[in-house]
Amino acid sequence: MHSNDYATAQSLMVSVTVSSIGAMQLHFLEPGVKVNGDHYWNTVLLNMLLLDIRSVFEDYYVLQ
């Protein structure tokens, strides 16, 4: 995705992990993607946010 795609989008979904050490990488979801529970769990949480968390905290974290 190019930065121009975001400028013309009607809405934009961004997800980020925030912890005691601060915010981690911003993850931009494709414009127009429909996020249901399965998509959030399998794509956003498992393949984006948990990778950030584990890169810093390894196995020592609590999701809230």
Polypeptide structure, described:
- This protein has one domain.
- Strands 1-2 form a two-stranded antiparallel sheet.
- The protein is of the alpha+beta class and 64 residues long.
- It contains two helices and two strands.
Beta-strand share of residues: 15-25%
* Secondary-structure element order, N to C: HEEH
Specify the number of helices.
2
Query: What is the arithmetic mean of pLDDT?
Result: 84
DSSP summary, beta strand count: 2
**Biggest sheet details:** 2 strands, antiparallel
Share of helical residues: 40-55%
Radius of gyration: 13 Å
Q: Sum up the overall morphology in one term.
A: globular
Main sheet: which strands, in order across? 1-2
How far apart are the termini? 30 Å
Residue stretches low in confidence (pLDDT < 50, at least 5 long) are: none
How would you describe this structure in keywords?
alpha+beta, 2 helices, two-stranded antiparallel ribbon, 20% strand, 64 residues, single chain
Question: Could you give the topology of this structure?
Answer:
Layout: H1 3-8, E1 14-19, E2 22-28, H2 37-57
Antiparallel strand pairs: 1-2
Quick description:
The protein has 64 residues and is of the alpha+beta class. The chain has one domain. Helices cover 42% and strands 20% of the residues.
